[in-house]
Amino acid sequence: MNLDIMQWFDFNVLIFMGMSLVFNGFIAYLWHKKFYQKLGLKTYRAVQRIHLNETPRLGGFIFISSLISFVAFSNTNESIQLLKIILICLIPIIFIGIKEDLFHNVEPAIRLLTLLFVGWLFRAQFTGPLPVLTEIPFISKLLLLQGGISIFYILSMTAIANGMNLIDGVNGLCGAVALSILGALLFISHKTSDVVMLSTISSVILILIPFLIFNYPYGKIFLGDLGAYCLGLMISMLTIILFGRHPEISPWGAVLILIYPATEVVFSLLRRAMKGVSIYHADTAHLHLKFFHFFRPQSHYKKMANALVTPILSPLWLFPLIAISWVHNKPLFIFIAILLFVLFYGLLYAMVPKVQKNS
Fold first, then answer.
1. How many angstroms from the chain centroid is the CA of residue 75?
2. Above 70 in pLDDT, residue 38?
3. Mean pLDDT for the chain?
4. In this predicted structure, what is the pLDDT of residue 24?
5. Looking at the predicted structure, is the pLDDT value of residue 306 above 50?
6. Are the beta carbons of 255 and 331 closer than 8 angstroms?
7. What pLDDT score was predicted for residue 238?
8. Which percentage of the chain shows pLDDT scores above 70?
């Protein structure tokens, strides 16, 4: 069914897209002039840091602030109402995230508990239909338990948020993954003629784009924990809402759409468990960092090693968007696509040499 863009597109979002563009550029300029030193902010120190210059981790704050402003100044409709619910639920992680991005002193356990609390808030606030999960093995049995549905969705949102934070290490990757996932959700919204979700998702995409302009390829600004967590939670919530509104689409489609951050967090947990280290233990063994450290020692790739990783990994982050457009109405093929992704991820990880820590 062809949908008239005037039916679902909110042109006011272009104003706040422009606002986001200006503020991303302004913050990037201030950090370039070392304004953070005048504020007494600490430089970011972490084992997974790969950038030589101090870079603002405020891209997520600008994204969320622009989205909040858009919602606050827009006329109330079903799309704006959904965004309000999502943003209200994100309030706890916004405060924790900005504290971590500015001062780098929030314990991992506190961040994890906050993510779980956000998941609980969403389950408490959102009263719409949820995806039908009876056809998914094991999960259907969990749902029969007292509070099983809530536990499943809370853990799922927390996992995706952590997965997005794990891949926020090189220029463009986390933003590209988010854009791909949102694009897949936009496709499903179009196929189901859901004007509310088309409007909601397109607004989120447009307000995210200015960040990507400054984040890739030169890394002038980062999402930070606030941005990565909020994007992970937001795409999880939008996925739950969309698939709940359309039970005719197999819930395996949601798994396929979110497969990259889900695989990243599960793979990281398994890797740390096998090494006998804490789940909070930061390391440089993530796939994107392995690629970075593979390119960095090579003289002809040294300067662009960071920028190379996102396009090199494009088969992974584009896979769900491309696959869902082919198999969205074929549950068996969706499941096969999920298996192919996990297999490809594993093979790719095994093929890339171990991180060269001294390079």
1. 27
2. no
3. 88
4. 95
5. yes
6. no
7. 98
8. 89
The 3-class SS string of the chain reads: CCCCHHHHCCCCHHHHHHHHHHHHHHHHHHHHCCHHHHCCCCCCCCCCCCCCCCCCCCHHHHHHHHHHHHHHCCCCCHHHHHHHHHHHHHHHHHHHHHHHHHHCCCCHHHHHHHHHHHHHHHHHHCCCCCCCCCCCCCHHHHCCCCCHHHHHHHHHHHHHHHHHHHCCCCCCHHHHHHHHHHHHHHHHHHHCCCHHHHHHHHHHHHHHHHHHHHHCCCCCCCCHHHHHHHHHHHHHHHHHHHHHHCCCCCCHHHHHHCHHHHHHHHHHHHHHHHHCCCCCCCCCCCHHHHHHHHHCCCCCCHHHHHHHHHHHCHHHHHHHHHHHHHHCCCHHHHHHHHHHHHHHHHHHHHHCCCCCCCC
What is the reported pLDDT for 52?
53
Structure tokens at 244: 């709940």
Nearest CA-CA partner of 207 in 315, 115, 87, 121 = 87
On the question of a cis peptide bond just before residue 353, with omega within 30 degrees of 0, the verdict is: no
Report CA torsion sign: 30, 32, 37, 38: negative
Total length of the chain: 359
The dihedral sign for the CA sequence 264, 266, 271, 273: positive
Chain-centroid distance of CA 53 in Å reads: 24
308-343 tens-digit pLDDT: 999 999 999 999 999 999 999 898 999 999 999 999
Q: Are 52 and 5 in contact (CB under 8 A)?
A: no
Q: What is the pLDDT of residue 358?
A: 44
